[in-house]
TrEMBL record:
<keyword id="KW-0503">Monooxygenase</keyword>
<dbReference type="InterPro" id="IPR013785">
    <property type="entry name" value="Aldolase_TIM"/>
</dbReference>
<keyword id="KW-0285">Flavoprotein</keyword>
<keyword id="KW-0560">Oxidoreductase</keyword>
<comment type="similarity">
    <text>Belongs to the nitronate monooxygenase family. NMO class I subfamily.</text>
</comment>
<dbReference type="InterPro" id="IPR004136">
    <property type="entry name" value="NMO"/>
</dbReference>
<dbReference type="Pfam" id="PF03060">
    <property type="entry name" value="NMO"/>
</dbReference>
<keyword id="KW-0216">Detoxification</keyword>
<dbReference type="GO" id="GO:0016491">
    <property type="term" value="F:oxidoreductase activity"/>
</dbReference>
<protein>
    <recommendedName>
        <fullName>Propionate 3-nitronate monooxygenase</fullName>
    </recommendedName>
</protein>
<keyword id="KW-0288">FMN</keyword>
Length: 342
């Protein structure tokens, strides 16, 4: 048994990815633990109190788990471009009687310091970061509290920076991943390097344990990632239609829609590169969307919530990785067991 397996309390090499916005639920995390893997709560877009409540639920369940945090790495939006985009997409929000927030762009840090304080006061086994790397003092404090610290990287260059920044292990995320890219350079869309190639390249550059993420939706995908040098596979999209998933009904339906084509990478919803099912909003506004996170996320959020409430998949973010057609409406334990041939 490897040191990584021991540190993460893994009996099988599969991890349920943190999916912010509601998809990752305590029930999904428990399901991962029940097959011998690990699940992550997604701290992103939650208040510290909401995160604390979910952590309490996990402790009641008595299983090991991780928490993923958005590291502050803002991309300030150009104010003029922000207003122009807001005016352009207001016609979409008008469908639901929603007025978009067109005042000063919101450039918050998702309660980062409060969430770190929570994780230091109530330590969890594993804390991972995406979008960037926290300060050395944060890493040191989390380690002292007993947490394994994980950084998300999307390239060899980012991996080497993450090792220097003190990561205990790395989640290597390929461009095939659904939802936001974890890249620390969001002005650039990550190269479409296959996960096996990316793992192999980084494996030659560092001895830090690697977890593979991005487009892993079958047992063959998982086996290939492990063969390339990953010690476990991180899966997300393939779990979105499971019974334990908190994804919305229209999102689950869109994933099952045979007429949907390939996924695309877009900034239209949040101002940061993210992979999603193509829909009308992306077709109309992707080329107009300014770079700027989290300002564009906050701008479009009321429209997206209204679209979900109305069951309208054409004006909501349908995050999905390239393997989305393998997502099935089954218990998560069944899906996870199939990925590792249990």
């Amino acid at each position: 048994m490897s040191a990584l397996t021991t540190d993460l309390d893994l009996k099988v090499p599969v991890i349920a990815a943190p999916m912010a916005g509601g998809a990752s639920t305590p029930a999904l995390v428990v399901a991962a633990a029940r097959v011998g893997g690990l699940g992550f709560l997604a701290a992103g877009y939650k208040t510290p109190q909401a995160l604390s409540d979910q952590m309490d639920t996990m402790r009641t369940e008595g299983v090991s788990f991780g928490v993923n945090v958005f590291a502050p790495n803002p991309v300030p939006v150009d104010a003029t471009a922000f207003r122009t985009y807001a005016e352009a997409i207001q016609v979409e929000a008008d469908r639901y009687g929603v007025t978009l927030p067109v005042g000063e762009p919101v450039e918050d840090d998702d309660y980062f310091e409060d969430k770190i304080d929570l994780l230091l006061a109530n330590p969890v086994p594993v804390v991972s970061f995406t979008f960037g790397f926290p300060a050395p003092g944060v890493v040191k404090a989390l380690r002292a509290a007993g947490s394994t610290v994980v950084f998300t990287v999307t390239s060899e260059a980012e991996a080497l920076l993450a090792v220097d920044a003190g990561a205990d292990l790395l989640v290597v995320q390929s461009a095939a991943a659904g939802g936001h890219s974890g890249t620390i350079t969001p002005l650039q869309v990550p190269a479409e390097t296959p996960i096996t190639e990316l793992i192999a390249r980084i494996r030659h550059r560092t001895s830090v344990p690697l977890l593979a993420a991005g487009g892993l939706a079958t047992s063959a995908d998982v086996a290939a990632a492990l063969h390339a040098g990953a010690e476990a596979a991180v899966v997300g999209t393939v779990l979105l239609r499971t019974e334990e998933s908190g994804a919305s009904a229209p999102h689950k339906s869109a994933l099952a829609d045979a007429s949907r084509g390939k996924t695309v990478v877009t900034r239209a919803f949040t101002g940061r590169p993210a992979r999603a099912l193509r829909n009308e909003f992306i077709d109309r506004y992707d080329s107009q969307a300014p770079v700027g996170y989290p300002a564009i996320h906050h701008l479009t959020n009321p429209m997206r919530k209204a679209a979900v409430a109305q069951g309208d998949p054409e004006r909501m973010h349908l995050w999905a990785g390239t393997g989305y057609r393998h997502a099935t409406a089954e218990p998560a334990e069944v899906v996870l067991a199939r990925l590792i041939n249990l």
